[in-house]
Specification:
Length: 117
């Protein structure tokens, strides 16, 4: 009759099993660093287009903010909209990369707030 071997406590991982995880993490960090300018540019552009388009839709078109998402182009799914009805402004955010605000001004329409960069 075969008997099970008693365990000698918790097993320690060898250093070899950490190497693939570290290599993948390093590869992701290098890719993020390499594509950061492009990714950041897309986020700023998406938030700017979203804010101005949704502000125009809301305050010039008179539609609900939730209805204004229908006007977004494909690929703008990360853009989140919020409204400040007292200031007549719409803020579009691409978390955590960019936030842009467009404000409605009578006679001028919806204008993006100045960038702080």
């Amino acid at each position: 009759m075969a008997m099970a071997k008693p365990s000698s406590g918790p097993r320690r991982r060898s250093r070899r099993s950490r190497k693939p995880v570290l290599a993948i993490g390093l590869l992701l960090a290098v890719l993020l660093f390499a594509f950061w300018p492009r990714l950041n540019g897309y986020a700023v552009a998406g938030a700017s287009v979203g804010a101005r388009g949704a502000c125009s839709c809301r305050y010039l078109g008179g539609r609900e903010l939730s209805d204004c998402r229908k006007d977004f182009e494909p690929g703008m799914w990360p853009v989140i909209l919020s409204e400040d009805s007292t200031a007549k402004s719409v803020t579009a955010t691409v978390p955590p990369l960019s936030r842009q605000t467009a404000t409605f001004r009578e006679g001028e329409g919806c204008l993006l707030e100045p960038w702080t960069d």
